[in-house]
Amino acid sequence: MSLSMALSSSWPPTLLTTTQFSSTPRLVPLTSLSFPSKPTTTPTIVPALSHKWRARISFFPAFLSKGKDAKTLKEELLDAIASLDRGADATPEDQQAVDQITRKLEAVTPVKEPLKSDLLDGKWELLYTTSKSILQTGRPKFLRSRVNYQAINVDTLRAQNMESWPTFNQVTADLTPLNARKVAVKFDFFKIASLIPVKAPDRARGELEITYLDEELRVSRGDKGNLFILKMVDPSYRVPV
Known about the structure:
The protein is an alpha+beta fold. 19% of the residues lie in helices and 27% in strands.
């Protein structure tokens, strides 16, 4: 939003004076009259704006350019991803638009140190991601997981990813804090169809940074540049130790 300000100043009105004459005209000798040889011009001085006005001029644009709040940005973000099938139908332009809104939301996160917050605990449903492996875009749609979940427990430093029908696959992981918002992830066991355990290879590692967190929404970014947007569905869920 741009702000146009017009400052107007009113100059003092011109004072008109009259000269009163006596009732009886009196002749004045021409030699006694004197005339200015050349009119003089006095330069007009424009008064400088007071400090108070300067303060107002600098204050209003900054005030009106203040960014949107988290609630408004969350609504914009949810609207932007609503028709993208969790990201599977997103074009590069869609991904760029979502990323721009997300970065604005990340800048106003109410929780600066999510690994110290109870709000991180529980089961989250994936709303959007740029990860092709999680979206399973290489498979026909009828073979893709309909819903994906991720659970995190801060006290045990455990995480779990879960797929729904038709695969029902799961994987659990240990978390190692790298700072107050970023963890190293070491996957330990996969479960095929939630039944058959398979030990994860040692190379099954990654990193995850929580960039936005509140009671309802979480945004995370992976070490491969993928974006994850999730909503809370069960804050009481516990990840198997």
